[in-house]
């Protein structure tokens, strides 16, 4: 029954893989012994010889690259320990990925992989056998549930199917796969079933070549140690929580941690929760690392860190980029752990990314014995050790521009001096300023004309709340209703889009930084090494009616800063959703004009593209106009980018954000996979991002260059690949496609003249609708953008 779910690739793999086993064995069950054990399977294939080549950079115990250990396979995506989960872990990770199998024995002693003590949370066992739950004493504590050892292997194999037990992960594959046995994983069949964990391990065929066995129980490891001599097996001691008592010695794991030397007597390595190495403070910021890894290495003990996943809230120091977290453990100045136990093995693989290439230059080359010949090879990691690499220059098909969205607004409040400084430091090519106007005509940068969304205005200027329906339907506190001195009394407010869902951005900097006027922004840009600036102009018509000439102010400021001179070494991009605004900048030939289509479209008609070419040489489109999704799965790429490229228009895509809730399942909750996808599958010319450091880290990595033919590289997502695995009916019906862009959507009415004096202040009522519908087409765009974000949120996992 399970076999029919096998994909060919996996079956084939079984033929040429060499198997090594790592077992993590448990304490005794039922009062004395725990009813399951942990089993880690190490799969090695391909050019093993080359793996042993020297890579001096790694500060692991043996100097080898750290191991990627897939907990229950690729359990971040598929039901834990299922066939798809293991299969994907193998096909998407470094070639020597270790498969972690938490082994449970059936009543007749067959080994199944299933993480956790009981079965009801991750299988449908409670529905099939509703009355077969039991309570066992495990390490002195009563545990109630459905235990594998109360069921025969036939029952588990034939009647029980797997489900996803973590809410934020896809339930699409629920009920489609049965329990996975070691036999499934290895194509082996154990003639003799044994009831005790120790007997089970000792009964495994010798050619299983067990490499590691680990257990949280000291006596078990000691007992097994004496009996496994003939196998080339390492024993690993697994730490549970610091306050938990180790069952045989009754000491807490915290106490045992202080006596690493005693572990050396019976184990060659340890598994610890990652917080034992990089502890967090109560605010979820990283503290200094402990000396655990260095102490263990000094004793000759290997250290494996556990608890990694892309889709959980992580320390704010990582800015929601899971790769940064792995690098903290394997690529810091002081040490590298020897292995990472993760639910998302491809992301860990991207960080480790063991690569071999035949040498082109002599530098860093190593002699390697491979396939009976001696080769000169170079070993390169993907993301590790690449921080010091130069960022390759953008353009000409090399890589897309990194364009910020309100500066590094993922890290500091958007459009503040701190956000811009961070963006420059993080390697942004183009920093952006969305220009707003105060009531008294001061131009400044801010993400929204509604101050309540990115400042503390809501606490101090409630009286200025109004509704301006041509801008947005909900009421707000608009910049043009406050003077610059009033605005300067406000503080910036870092409100990430997923704060409500629990993913705050850098709370320590919530109100940090100061607002930046347009001239200050230009000064800051001039003094930096960015290759250009992007000035965004919104609501110009609406402001003109209020006596505020946004276009003139921007032109004046740019000219005053000499940005209009052809020889300026920094590019100026003028971006607007309003063709009349772009038309007004035609008189500055040095400026590049960018039309932003902030409404989701599914295609662009030829006449609409022709119309765009009248006003702009570049277009910024939303992610939803390029990648179509259904139930958080990528289904296809639209032709929008090709249409625009065919007309020689440059295409930027945005807005990229690191938070996993912003990423479809096909990106594996990894923002770098999304960047890789827009770079090499979509061929975008610019990436608009709130986290420029993430994009820069990718482009500094050799793995961003797919033409290098690296043995492991970070691959773009393939739309449809996951959807095709889902059972028919498992996905919601597809939404109707977004509209096709037509010329009428592109062309805007001419800008009204700037009113001589501002109109009377808008009344403070929610119904106040101050101006006509002359700009309603743009206002509609804004709503659609908001709608697109809302739609994304509603299909996200909460
Ligand atoms: C199973 O899920 C329930 C409810 O979410 C939780 O309280 C319980 O601890 C889980 N049990 C196990 C063994 O994970
Ligand atoms: C378990 O599966 C077998 C074989 O498919 C079937 O005959 C039996 O009725 C099932 N038992 C339950 C409780 O569903
Ligand atoms: C984490 O971030 C906090 C706040 O920015 C900083 O003080 C701390 O030094 C950082 N920790 C590490 C290990 O980088
Ligand atoms: C080594 O040999 C295998 C099988 O013969 C082949 O697939 C592989 O490409 C060879 N590797 C190199 C680096 O030549
Ligand atoms: C610009 O300078 C900063 C340091 O000031 C550096 O971190 C960054 O990499 C540089 N960017 C480029 C594109 O050279
Ligand atoms: C406001 O809401 C109405 C009705 O829902 C809609 O037709 C209109 O386009 C919206 N306007 C803006 C500016 O969002
Ligand atoms: C023009 O630039 C200079 C120096 O950069 C500045 O002092 C002056 O205020 C600017 N004038 C305007 C109108 O922006
Ligand atoms: C695009 O540019 C190329 C070269 O600059 C030119 O040959 C081609 O005709 C242009 N295509 C369009 C549709 O303008
Ligand atoms: C990568 O492989 C392709 C096709 O096999 C080949 O054309 C190309 O030259 C290779 N690139 C490098 C850098 O070896």
Description:
- The protein is α/β, with parallel strands linked by helices and about 800 residues long.
- Helices cover about 25% and strands about 20% of the residues.
- The strands form seven sheets. A nine-stranded mixed barrel has the order 1-2-4-3-13-12-11-10-9, surrounded by five helices.
- β11 (about 270-275), α11 (about 290-300) and β12 (about 300-310) form a beta-alpha-beta unit.
- It is elongated and about 90 Å long.
- One 2-acetamido-2-deoxy-beta-D-glucopyranose binds near residues 472, 779, 780 and 783.
State Rg.
29 Å
- Give the C-level CATH assignment of the largest domain: Alpha Beta
CATH topology value of the largest domain: TIM Barrel
Portion of residues within helices: 10-25%
Q: Tell me the count of domains.
A: 2
| Count of separate DSSP helical elements | 26
By CATH's scheme, which homologous superfamily of the largest domain applies? Phosphatidylinositol (PI) phosphodiesterase
How much of the polypeptide forms β-strand, as a percent range? 15-25%
What is the approximate shape? elongated
Second-tier CATH architecture of the largest domain: Alpha-Beta Barrel
Q: How many strands, what sense, and barrel or not for the largest sheet?
A: 9 strands, mixed, barrel
Enumerate the spans where pLDDT stays under 50 for 5 or more consecutive residues: 1-37, 42-55, 187-194, 760-798
The average pLDDT score comes to: 83
Each distinct ligand: 2-acetamido-2-deoxy-beta-D-glucopyranose
What oligomeric state best describes the polypeptide chains here? Answer: single chain
Look at the helices and sheets and give the structural class: alpha/beta
């Amino acid at each position: 029954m399970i076999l029919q779910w096998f994909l060919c690739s996996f079956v084939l793999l079984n033929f040429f893989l060499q198997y090594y086993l790592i077992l993590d064995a448990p304490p005794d069950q039922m009062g004395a012994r725990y009813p399951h054990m942990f089993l880690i399977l190490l799969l090695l294939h391909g050019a093993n010889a080359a793996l042993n080549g020297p890579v001096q950079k790694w500060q692991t115990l043996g100097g080898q690259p750290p191991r990627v250990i897939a907990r229950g396979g690729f359990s971040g995506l598929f039901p834990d320990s299922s066939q798809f989960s293991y299969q994907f872990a193998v096909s998407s990770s470094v070639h020597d990925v270790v498969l972690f199998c938490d082994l449970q024995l059936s009543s007749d002693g067959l080994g199944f992989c299933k993480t956790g003590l009981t079965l009801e949370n991750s299988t449908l066992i409670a529905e099939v056998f509703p009355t077969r739950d039991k309570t066992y004493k495990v390490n002195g504590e009563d545990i109630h549930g459905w235990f594998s050892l109360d069921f025969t292997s036939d029952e588990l194999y034939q009647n029980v199917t797997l489900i996803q037990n973590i809410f934020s992960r896809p339930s699409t594959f629920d009920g489609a796969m049965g329990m996975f046995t070691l036999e499934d994983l290895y194509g082996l069949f154990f003639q003799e079933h044994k009831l005790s964990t120790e007997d089970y391990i000792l009964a495994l065929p010798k050619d299983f070549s067990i490499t590691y066995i680990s257990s949280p129980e000291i006596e078990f490891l000691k007992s097994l140690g004496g009996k496994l001599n003939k196998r080339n097996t390492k024993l690993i001691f697994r730490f549970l929580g610091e306050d938990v008592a180790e069952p045989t010695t009754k000491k807490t794991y915290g106490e045992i941690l202080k006596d690493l030397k005693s572990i050396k007597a019976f184990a060659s390595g340890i598994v610890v929760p990652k917080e034992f190495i990089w502890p967090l403070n109560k605010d979820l910021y990283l503290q200094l690392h402990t000396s655990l890894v260095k102490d263990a290495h000094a004793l000759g003990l290997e250290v494996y860190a556990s608890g990694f996943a892309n889709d959980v809230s992580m320390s704010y120091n990582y800015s929601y980029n899971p790769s940064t977290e792995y690098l903290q453990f394997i690529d810091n100045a002081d040490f590298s752990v020897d292995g990472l136990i993760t639910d998302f093995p491809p992301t860990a693989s991207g960080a480790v990314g063991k690569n071999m290439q035949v040498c082109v230059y002599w530098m860093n080359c190593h002699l390697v014995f491979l396939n009976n010949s001696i080769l000169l090879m170079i070993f390169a990691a993907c993301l590790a050790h690449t921080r010091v690499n130069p960022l390759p220059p953008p353009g000409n098909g090399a890589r897309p521009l990194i364009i910020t969205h309100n500066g590094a607004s993922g890290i500091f409040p958007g459009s503040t001096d701190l956000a811009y400084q961070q963006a420059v430091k993080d390697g942004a090519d183009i920093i952006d300023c969305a220009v707003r106007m105060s009531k008294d005509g001061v131009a400044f940068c801010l993400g929204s004309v509604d101050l309540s969304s990115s400042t503390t205005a809501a606490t101090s200027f409630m009286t200025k709340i109004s509704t301006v329906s041509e801008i947005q339907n909900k009421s707000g506190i608009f910049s043009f209703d406050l003077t610059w001195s009033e605005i300067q009394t406000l503080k910036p407010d870092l409100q990430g889009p997923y704060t409500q869902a629990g993913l705050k951005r850098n709370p320590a900097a919530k109100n940090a930084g100061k607002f930046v006027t347009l001239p200050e922004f230009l000064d800051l840009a001039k003094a930096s090494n960015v290759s250009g600036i992007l000035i965004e102009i919104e609501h110009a018509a609406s402001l003109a009616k209020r006596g505020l000439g946004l276009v003139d102010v921007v032109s004046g400021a740019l000219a005053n800063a000499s940005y209009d001179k052809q020889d300026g070494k920094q590019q100026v991009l003028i971006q607007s959703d309003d063709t009349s605004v772009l038309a007004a900048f035609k008189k500055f030939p040095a400026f590049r004009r960018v039309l932003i289509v902030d409404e989701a479209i599914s295609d662009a008609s030829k006449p609409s593209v022709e119309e765009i070419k009248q006003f702009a040489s570049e277009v910024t489109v939303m992610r939803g106009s390029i990648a179509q999704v259904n139930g958080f799965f990528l289904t296809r790429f639209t032709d929008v980018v090709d249409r625009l490229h065919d007309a020689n228009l440059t295409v930027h895509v945005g807005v990229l954000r690191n938070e996993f809730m912003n990423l479809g399942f096909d990106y594996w909750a990894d923002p770098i996979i999304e960047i890789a996808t827009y770079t090499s599958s979509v061929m975008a010319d610019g990436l608009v991002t709130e986290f420029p450091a993430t994009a820069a880290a990718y482009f500094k990595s050799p793995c961003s260059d797919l033409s290098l033919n690296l043995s492991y590289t970070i691959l773009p997502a393939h739309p449809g690949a996951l959807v095709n695995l889902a059972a028919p009916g498992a996905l919601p019906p597809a939404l109707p496609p977004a509209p096709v862009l037509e010329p009428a959507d592109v062309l805007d009415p001419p800008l009204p003249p700037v009113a001589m004096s501002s109109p009377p202040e808008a009344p403070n009522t929610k119904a106040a609708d101050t101006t006509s519908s002359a700009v309603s087409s743009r206002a509609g765009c804004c709503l659609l953008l908001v709608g697109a974000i809302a739609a994304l949120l509603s299909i996200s996992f909460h």
